[in-house]
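Practice problem: predict the structure.
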Amino acid sequence: MTNIHLATVLNKFNVAPNIICLKVLKPREFIFCPGQFARLGLNVDHQKTDLLTWRAQSIANNPQDNFLEFLIILEDGGAFSELLKLTASGNGVHLDERSYGFFTLDRFLLQGDLWLLATGTGIAPFLSIISEKKVWHNFQSVNLLHSVRDNSQIIYTEKIFSIFRDPSLKNYVSNFNYVPFTTRCSESTEGILAGKTTTFDLTRSHFIDILESSWIKENLKLDLSIEKSKIMLCGNPNMVKETRKYLQLKGFAISRKDKPGQIAVESFW
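Answer:
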């Protein structure tokens, strides 16, 4: 049985009506790789370890930070969500001492173009992944496509741009595209094209619509190819399943430890 740390809450705030950003002090012994998740436990008494309600959450920040950041969906009537509402700065959150998961760049040969496809808070592991310098040093382009219900959930542009405040990365910003798009409204979205803010008009769209069209080639001037592309899918299980099936029919393969391919997946629900 693993040990449980009591991590102090540094900050908790809503980034969207149904999404909370939770920051806790990272225990010195806690180690993770970008793309991995942690197990968080809550109960009414923030000190006791009995009768904990657990939830697995992807980590959204850089491993070198002295905190852990999580993007958490509030579920109506959910036990963890109700306990989280009662949690305030200074309280303790129980944290499994281990990090979990294999949704990391270790799944790939680090070359070519990196494609990060997320729905909702499935963007969290990608925020951690793109915060690492080796991403920019190894891939020719990094492309983050993010599906959300409406514009209220496009809340990460500033956090993404903050990565390039590191002087050693400023020359890589032109290799980056961030394309948020909505599935349930007709409003345009603000994203990043070749390192500069721009407006996209992808509305009421889904990943399959974009992949089947010529939009990527016409707008990003790139192609998804078996030779160059590394593709990570995270979010709604239906999106992950449908997009993985579409890519496999095109000849892309799931990347495995003993046989590197082009696809890695993480269902996030």
